[in-house]
Every structure is written in structure tokens, then in C-alpha cells.
Design goal:
Layout: E1 27-29, E2 36-38, H1 51-54, H2 59-65, E3 68-72, E4 79-83, H3 88-98, E5 102-106, H4 109-120
Parallel strand pairs: 4-5
Antiparallel strand pairs: 1-2, 3-4
Length: 123
């Protein structure tokens, strides 16, 4: 868990505190701060991400890092991405490339890869 002195700073991995996860909702814990983060593994198989959201990041980055952009908040500009939490550096890279705050939700690698194939076509 995050030390009490660090609670005012958002987690660099998940933007901790961005999510209000109900106990009955599928979730996982952020490996960085321990906050509950939504697990969207089953959901991303059923949603269609708008092309303008997919295009916020280069397809080569999405495939290389196995990341699916899910939503871009119009008010704040924040980008929500599904990842398997494999690498904190990936999240920092996405922030840099998109020039946006990035909020992370969890999904299994195979579910993300399948969703990317659906949205980008198979390689």
C-alpha cells in the first residue's frame, strides 16, 4: 500500500484513486500502489473502441506494448488504457506519446491482443 505521506500523489502506474471499484466488480490490485483497479478482461472482448481513440497512439506501439486505448475523456483529456501492468515504463511512454494523463485498467494479455486484432486487423 501507499505510505500515508504519499497519498496525495497519484500512483505513476494506475493513477491511483482514479477508480471507485465496487466490491462485486471484477478487479485486481495495482502492483505499484495496491489500489483496486477495474479488470476489464471480459469487457474488452465485447466493446468497440471508437477509431479516434484507437488513433491516439500509433498501432505499432499498441501492438509492441500490448495496450488497448479504451476511452478518452473529453473534459479532462485523460486516456484510459487496458494493460496487463507488465511495465511501468510503458505507461510513462504512453503519457509522453499521447501528451495526456493516462489511467490504467487491467486486462489479460491475450484479451488485449484479441481486441487489438479486432480493431486493427490481424498482422
Amino acid at each position: 500500500m501507499v505510505a500515508s505521506s504519499d497519498r496525495h500523489r497519484p500512483c505513476p502506474m494506475c493513477a491511483g484513486g482514479a477508480w471507485d471499484v465496487a466490491p462485486e466488480e471484477p478487479s485486481t490490485r495495482c502492483p505499484e500502489c495496491g489500489q483496486l483497479v477495474p479488470d476489464v478482461t471480459t469487457l474488452i472482448g465485447r466493446i468497440t473502441v471508437p477509431p479516434d481513440v484507437i488513433e491516439l497512439l500509433p498501432a505499432s506501439v499498441l501492438r509492441a506494448d500490448n495496450v488497448l486505448p479504451c476511452e478518452a475523456d473529453q473534459a479532462s483529456g485523460a486516456l484510459t488504457v487496458a494493460t496487463d501492468f507488465s511495465d511501468r515504463a510503458t505507461i510513462e511512454k504512453l503519457r509522453f506519446i499521447s501528451n495526456r494523463a493516462v489511467h490504467v485498467v487491467f486486462a489479460e494479455r491475450r484479451a488485449i491482443a484479441s481486441a487489438l486484432d479486432r480493431h486493427l486487423g490481424t498482422e
